[in-house]
């Protein structure tokens, strides 16, 4: 089950609004004071059993007329709809059975929080406000002051289960099955987590103690109980030895200490104070401190970490606690059934690369069912660029009116949505915070690099790599910032991926124009040749922190060309935006035909000036073997058929979807071009 929507009436900036949620991650964005925090607060009033429920005059929506206030006392109503989700547990329906409003294959239940003036005070209220007559801001302010001073103390709250007209109070036992954890933007994580004296850490310790035994599916509950009991007894025996040793060491000193007790009269009736004791595992937790150990072996207390690092640790501990709370074997009937996590502004104290990692962490916890539903409020473009449009909810407040937008619902066609989704990226300021940087020439490389990394079992996100599109060969402007061989630069690993871009011009006239790799240096009597001078600028191990990677000398060209040289028969690469899709399809089929020759592929080319040039150049080339020539024919036709931006958007989507099928028979093998593979491995080592 999941919270499918919330209806907020008369609470803070929400006059009368319904917000629809996703079954999973919900990223709530909006400008300051758009209502993000108020939305989470409204949610907590209904389902958070730990926080106070009482409200005050300032919690009412003030966008009301005097006539409305005079007609009836203001009331806050917040309704939460719980719906059957994709992932169900046997206890879901049992938990919400008393709140059901719809019972079929997709059941619904309703919980409603009301903050109201009791009926017996209504007449007194109407009489008190009747003296106010003018519909002016001053008179409305007087009305609110009257409510604050004379009536707010009479207000009470209820949480109803089911249709509100039935006025059936939601049973507390079922409400206790909901675990709502909220991390606000201003949190003291050092106070909350750093030692075993803290309740949160003690609960986590207690649950995960002897965890290797508790999760061993080869052992029966009886054997697990027996082994854990034996460990506890062994610990107690060892602790007794320590206590006895401590008592022995203080024996003489104890007599001196207690002599003062006798002199002050603390000893009487033949009774005198002494020292003894025992210690349990739970009591020993208090001596444990959270520390951070680096690869070098250096250990520092967590209190010496930055706030961002400690916030991440605290969030991980909180999720561990939620796992504890939901464990039936550990808590039996007290276990939580529905676990929800709300985090306000997780970007506080987190640099951009860590925000990506944090979102990935939350999604993994959702997939592993350690938390059922997640709510995140944020101002961070880095966070919104890391989630899908389906997960984003936009709040906007203007002139006292709050509106809600859902980006995933506004596109007339799916291809429009995919296009916008892929272009939602953060600004290039990312490079100042990331641990490593991958500079690329264009949008195609920018969109595809992370997916390529996943195909070779790497993760740019896990390695805190920012992919920055410089819009051409404009690497130098950025390299000045990071060249560690110069003073005052930012030292971090830099990798640049650039095209070969071979060119030629007639010796007697004209300018350099693009040419195919199989034309490069083939007619030195007629043409002058050149290629991208940056490609060999910083080869591997020639600079402290900067490395360039590009396609193979004399054989490479652009990313699109290299994709087909590495995957000459992969029809997965034929996106809808390709202009010569059928011709390429025929060429790929011919390539894998047994006994197919170079001439067979050339015969598949339709008549055109571009294809005539390919035919002539391939036949004149004396360096490439037959296999390389066949690949070159397909690669050159593919290059001439794609529009870089749109094709890259479609290709990134297709490759990402294919990767989701890895491990199944539907997965299609894809070869990442070698120079890109080398670049990614350089960054991820």
UniProtKB/TrEMBL annotation:
Residue intervals of the OLD protein-like TOPRIM domain: 432-501
Xref: SUPFAM superfamilies: P-loop containing nucleoside triphosphate hydrolases (SSF52540)
Pfam families, alphabetized: AAA_15, OLD-like_TOPRIM
Residues covered by the Endonuclease GajA/Old nuclease/RecF-like AAA domain: 1-383
Name this polypeptide is given: DUF2813 domain-containing protein
